[in-house]
Structure formats: C-alpha cells, structure tokens
Amino acid sequence: MSTEPGEKVLKEKKYAPDWDSWSLKGDWTIIGHKIIEGVRGKRLDELTPQQYVIAQRPHSTVYHHSFGLISKFFRGLVEKKLYGTRCPKCGLVYCPPRAHCWRRECRLEETVWIELPLRGTLVTYSVMAFAATPFLKHLPFILTYVRVDGTNASIPVRLTGIKPEEVNVGLKVNLNFVDEPKGDLMDIYATPAEKPVPPKRTPEELRRLKEDVETVRRWLKRRFPE
Amino acid sequence: MVAEAVKDILNDLPNLDLNDIDAAFYSYFSDHLEQQLCMHWIIHDYIGLCSKPAYRVESGGATPIDAIINAYAYIRAGLFDEVLVCGWEKMSELDTPKVNEFIAMASDTDWDYPVGGYYTGYYAVLETRHMHLYGETEEDLARLAVKNHNSATYNPYSQWQSQHGTSKISIDDVFKSRLIAWPYRVHNCAMISDGASALLLASEEKAKELTDTPVWITGVGLGTDTMRPGDRIDNPAWVGVYPEDEKAWPKTEARPMSPYPEMANFGSFRVAADMAYKMAKVDNPLKQLDLAEIFNPYDGVEICAYEDLRFCKRGEGKTLVREGVTEFGGDLPCQVSGALTAQGHAVGSTSVAQTIDVFWQLREEIGKKWGAPGRQVSGAERGLIQGHGGTGCQAGVIVIER
Fold first, then answer.
1. Taking CB atoms and an 8 Å cutoff, what residues of chain A touch B230?
2. Tens digit of each residue's pLDDT (9 = 90 or more) over A25-58
3. What span, in angstroms and rounded, lies between the C-alpha atoms of B207 and A88?
4. Which of residues 34-93 of A touch B (CB under 8 A)?
5. Distance between CA atoms of B213 and B360, rounded to whole angstroms?
6. Which of the residues A112, A214, B107, B268 could staple to B223 if both were Cys, CB 3.0 to 4.6 A apart?
7. Do B263 and A130 make contact, defined as CB atoms within 8 angstroms?
8. Can you give the pLDDT at residue A131?
9. What is the mean predicted confidence (pLDDT) over A2-17?
10. What is d(CA B282, CA B329) in angstroms, rounded to the nearest whole number?
C-alpha cells in the first residue's frame, strides 16, 4: 500500500478518512458473550446436554487491491468505456480480459487491448431472491451472463427494464453505464435491446414466480424498514 | 468435533494404535468462517498426533475429496502406510448472508462476486442454462429435493432430521419453501452446517491387519474447469474433447466454440470420473455401481452429474429423475445419506462424511450405524463418491469396493 521506488500516483480518488478508524474499531476485542445450554454427541439418538461459552469478536480492514495487467479494463469503466483483449496469434477476444492468451497453442502470447461495443446477448439468467450481506438491499434483481458482441466469453451483468418473468436466454441487450462509475462490473447494467420473448411456463410456474418476487419485496421491507 | 469422529474409528478398530499412524491429512475450507488460519495444527496436536507429518488440503468444496485422494496417493507412493483423513467445518459463527459472502470469496472477487454476490446465484444461472437446453423443470428439481430430504429422515447424523424431525416432505412443500435464486428454493439448496468426520486409509497389508472387512479405493480421479463460469462458452481447452456430448448440443441453439461442457454441464466431473473409471475398470457406471453420493450443493447439479458421470447421455439426467432410477430401491440409488441439502454441508467434512456413508453401506453396517436396517442397499459391492468446489472449478471422484 505504500508507494514503491520509481512509482508515482497518476490519479487518485482518496477514500474518506473514517474508513481507517472503522478498520481499527474493535478488532479482536470481545464485545459480548453468552453462555448457552446445548447438546453434544454424534448421533441424534445419543445426545447429552452440554454448556458452551460463545464470544463475539468483530473483524474489519481495508484492502489496497491492484488489478495488475488488466487494470486498463477498470480504468475504462471509470471513463465509461468497455475494453477487452485480443490475442494477436489466434484472434480470440476476451472480456473479462486476459493479459495472456489461454489457448495452449498460443503459449501465453501477450494480448492487445481493444474497445468493445456496448451490446451483447444473454447467455443465462436468474431471478435473485436472496444475497450475501452487501447485496441484500438490491433484491430482487436479475443476474445475467452476457456475451459482449464479438467476444469469446461472458460477463456477469445485472439486467433492468424488464419483468422477471419475461427474461430469457438469447435476449439481445444494450450495456449501459451508471452515472458515477466506481471501477467494478456494477458500473454496467443491461437493458433489453429488443422485445423480449418470455420462456414457456405453465400457469402455475408463472403464478409462483410472480408471487416469489412479491414475497422478497415484502421480506425486504421488514428487514430494512427505512 | 474432530476428536469425536476419530474416537469412532478407535472404537471400531480396537487394534488400531495411534502411534502407528504415519501422517494426517486435514480438510477444512475456509479460514474466514472461524477467524483461524492453520486450524489443522490445533486439531493435529489436540488429537495427540503432533510430531507426525500433517498436511492441509484446500480446494473449496473439493477440499474433502481432494484430501482423500491426496492421502491415497501418498500411500500408493509408498511414503506412508496408515493415514488419518479428518474433515470439518464450523459455519454457525456468522449469520446466513455473511456465511454466503465468505463462501463467495472462493469465486473470482474481481469479476463474479461484485455482481452475482454468491454461489446460489452462480449455480442458479448454470442450471437455468441447462434447463433451457435440455428441458428439466422446476418439478424435476423438486422431486430431487423430496428424494434427498426424505432419505435424511432415516439418517441419525443428518442436520435436516435434527432440525425438522422425521416427517416426510412433498413436492408441494418444496414449492412452498422460499425462493433463493430462480430456479432454486430453500429446499433445493445445501444446508449451512457444523460437522466433522474422519477416515483411516491404509496400505493393503496394514488394512488386512486392522480389519477382516476392509473397503478398497479402486479408482481416483481429479478434473478442473474455469474459475469464472462465464468463460466456459468458448474454451479452446475443451474443443473436440468429448464429441458425443458436443453432438448432444440442441440444433436450435446458437453453437458456442466449446459445446461441452459449456456453462450447462460440469466438465471437471467428467474428467475426474473417466480417470477413476479407467483405474477401477468401470465402463458402464449405471450397471456396475451399486450406489453413489454426489456433491449436490443445489439440486440441478445432481441432474448434470448423472450426465457428466456417464450414468446417462447428456440431456437425459431428467429421465433418471422421472423414472426413479436413482431413488432408494432404484438401479443406482444416489444420496441415500440425504447429501448436502439434507444430511448437511459442513464443507471440509462433506465428501469425507459421504465416503463414510458409502463405506458403511459396503460393509452392510447401516442397520448398526444408522439404526435403519431398511436403508441398507442390499448386496452393495461398489460405490462412487464425487466432490467438487467452486462452480465445478475442481472436482474429484473416488470408486470404492468391498
């Protein structure tokens, strides 16, 4: 995280200083505890009572993470441009970018950077109704993998501007940038570039999916009342 | 937990002397779930083995199968004669979204994690793709959930039974359980578990000294696929490797560069299985295997595994489900233990525990070990255990026989 000899900072968006105090707060300190009566034993028919002590300890930090040779991709996001790489030997186009070609015959040939179109095709999708902690507030959302036109891979992108029951494999999409990109793939979102053709569902499957989405919305309101 | 599991081996083998154990292989997945790196050093000295060689194996969900295969290889290489393999995970220290976050750190945190957020999402998109290409339905997935949960109601080591008792569930119960990431509902997903298990592996000579009824590892295999599932559509490494499966690509669909495994199937399972089958001389798994324990963090994986492990042709996994081929009493019972969605999924322990389930079946000990003689697969002689990590990024298969 310190600057090495010969390095200079070209551009920097400093993080708010309270993140440093956050990462120092309470590390490894026991902030609470409880004593519980539980059970011990291997088989459900052989359990005996046992008391346990449970201590509560927080842990937090800030990572200073370098994107290495594919840093240009992330710099591109901040500048609202989508970059990939192309192998000069075999012509495969990578997005996510690879700094070296993975085709074995190309013997880790170094790739070259190219700018990519903001269009693609939906390879697959899911209607997300639960998530890891940082993403709970985004629910429900549509997770898709999109093959950017002219590339030989697919990238994870959230899809908006469509009803969950209308999303289908093969949908042509446009890729859009958020107003203030931060430098990860969440800076991009997809929207339909054509009228969607929904997948075939039985009336029961359709009813269930619509109900599921409503259930998530209700659950979220209870979990995050603000 | 680990000591309790090791004690079980000591109880079963009165002739076993801990002094004779040459080395121990330890399987646990995450340093984050318990804020402890190198936890195997703690376990190793706790069970009294310090001074002896110890190895930690870590490859995500493939950790436990990988640990078994590593231990096997060291014995085959002649370096050790008796090796202990211990697996565990304690996942109850954090709430469910945080556990999912820490597990998701095994996915590519620069690419997949910031958008997808966790494994249920990744596996859901993979299953959506397989459903789109090969036509299995939400009901097929629910059937598997019913099969596996109801199996667990006979298994006194199962987490499902400890939390929900022994009453059976129906397809309707699965549909009533909460959606997590379409097409997966709570009952289609692996449990979050605390658990431990232990196996003793020995050379042929030592095994015969220790027991009259040994079970032999006759085949092992390992395979890999890409870290990011999105990279699997055009992967030069797979082109032309499995032509029959490439032919099973639907003609109506745009053809990617590498139609098999693509995002729809798990190529790492295939490579691992073919290696193990070759070693064990298995050329018709459906016929030659008597039971299998598949690593099924989500039910769709079981359907794909039927295809990738060659129980059926690509695209026909759903048929095995619909015809009950893999039910208890069918031609090839799968997940008699209840497996990840119902026996439990303490990651580092999972495939060790599933191996023990098959081990007991092959020794006809289910009556004694489970108190459920009706769940003994009668005359079982050969079983398969498959494990994997990530989204099938790494896989292992072992074939064991009595």
1. 96, 123, 145, 153-156
2. 767 788 899 999 999 998 999 999 999 998 888 8
3. 56
4. 40-45, 57, 59, 67, 90, 92
5. 11
6. B268
7. no
8. 85
9. 86
10. 21
**Alpha-carbon distance A145 to B300, whole Å?**
18
**B30, part of any domain:** no
Say if A224 is an interface residue toward chain B (CB within 8 Å). no
Q: Which residue has the tokens 């966790």?
A: B118
| Interface membership of A131 toward B (CB under 8 Å) | yes
This prediction has a pTM of 0.95
> What's the rounded Cα separation, in Å, for the pair B222 and B342?
26
d(CA B280, CA B273): 10
Selected for mutation to probe chain B from A124, A139, A185, A202 (highest B CB count within 10 Å) is: A124
Least CA distance to B4: which residue of chain A?
Answer: A42
- By the CB < 8 Å criterion, does A27 face chain B? no
CA-based nearest residue in chain B for residue A151: B234
CATH of the domain at B239: 3.40.47.10
Q: In terms of pLDDT, which residue wins out, A24 or B101?
A: B101
* Omega cis (within 30) before A156: no
Which helix or strand (DSSP H or E) is residue B394 part of? strand B394-401
Between A83 and A27, residue with greater pLDDT:
A83
Please tell me which residue of chain A has the smallest CA distance to B130. Answer: A124
Tell how far CA B2 is from the center of its chain.
Answer: 19
B74 in any annotated domain? no
- How distant is the alpha carbon of residue A190 from its chain centre? 14
Q: What is the pLDDT of residue B117?
A: 78
> Alpha-carbon distance B368 to B329, whole Å?
20
Q: Is residue B306 part of a domain?
A: yes
The domain in which residue B109 lies consists of 95-190+214-402
Cα(A47)–Cα(A113) distance, integer angstroms: 62
- Average pLDDT of chain A to the nearest whole number: 93
Report the alpha-carbon distance of residue B353 to residue B348 in Å, rounded. Answer: 9
* Alpha-helical runs (H) found in chain A: 18-24, 71-78, 203-223
Residues in chain B with CB shorter than 8 Å from the CB of A136 are 97
Q: What is the pLDDT of residue A21?
A: 84
Q: How many domains does chain B have?
A: 1
CB pairs under 8 A between A and B: 153
- Say whether the ipTM exceeds 0.90: yes
B54 inside domain: no
Q: Which of A42, A185, A216 is facing B8, going by the closest CB pair?
A: A42
- Which of A18-22, A209-213, B15-19, B295-299 has the weakest average pLDDT? A18-22
* Contact criterion met (CB < 8 Å) for A209 and B182: yes
What pLDDT digit, counting tens, does each position of B236-249 carry? 999 999 999 999 99
> How many CB atoms within 10 Å of residue B395?
32
Q: Do B231 and A43 touch (CB under 8 A)?
A: no
A1 has a pLDDT exceeding 70: no
Q: Name the minimum distance, in Å, from the CA of A77 to any CA of chain B.
A: 13
Taking CB atoms and an 8 Å limit, are A155 and B178 in contact across chains? no
Q: What is the pLDDT of residue A2?
A: 65
The residue type at A106: C
Instruction: Give the number of other CB atoms < 10 A from CB of residue B55.
Output: 17
Mean pLDDT lowest among A102-116, B106-120, B352-366, B378-392: B106-120
Instruction: Mark yes or no for CB contact B179/A215 under 8 Å.
Output: yes
